Amino acid sequence: MSAGASRAWWAPRRWRAPWKRPAVADRLARTLSADGTVRGLAAVTTELVEEARVRHGTLPTATAALGRALTAGLLLGGLSKADERVSLQWSGDGPLGSILVDATPGGHVRGFVSRPQTHLPARAGKLDVGGAVGRGVLCVMRIPLGEASPYRSIVPLVSGEIGTDVASYLAGSEQIPSVVGVGVFVHADGRVGAAGGYLLQAMPGA
């Protein structure tokens, strides 16, 4: 695959209501605690990440990194205002290069990784996403529709493991205590077996 092809963004997907898809299919769900102090989002993204793997020709570590980033973007986009989209870019000094994801509140998400052929030896039995990303920064842009000037925030990467980086951004730049977990399971043959994540966030004044 050429460098140009690896950077081509694939068509964004529209999330369907859970009752229109099989129980194991991709879905995005929102919830609010009974006392109104915590809101949450949860996503199953297995089909999404497998489609990205096929389109970009990623090797396992790059698959996990891009899949986590797509899932994190979907979750963060789900918290955005109706008239804006959110863009996230991980830029590290690791062999993976950069990851760029773009998402909307309506459930559209797209992205690419600059070096899709990246794969590292496992670390502690897990794909070494943090090692592939390396040290660097996460740039988050909230882009209002119809306006030229986005709101931009740049924070240091905490681990390069994707989820903790997004949680750090939310706590530091948006001053909202949050927990973010994203994960991708990749089979030995490279196929995506499972992918998904969650985001829990304290409501204002909680």
CATH superfamily: Hsp33 domain
Helices, by number, come to 5
* Top CATH class: Alpha Beta
Which class of secondary structure composition applies to the elements?
alpha+beta
Which residues sit in consecutive blocks of at least 5 with pLDDT less than 50? 1-23
Give the helix level as a range of percent: 10-25%
Shape: globular
CATH topology: Hsp33 domain
Summarize the biggest pleated sheet: 5 strands, antiparallel
Strand content: 25-35%
Number of strands: 9
Number of domains: 1
The rounded Rg comes to 16 Å
Terminal-residue CA separation = 49 Å
Order of helices and strands: HEEHHEEEHEEHEE
Q: Numbering strands along the chain, what is their spatial order in the largest sheet?
A: 5-4-3-6-7
**Level-2 CATH architecture:** 3-Layer(bab) Sandwich
Rounded mean pLDDT is: 87
Concise structural overview:
The chain is α+β, with helices and mostly antiparallel strands and 206 residues long. 24% of the residues lie in helices and 33% in strands.
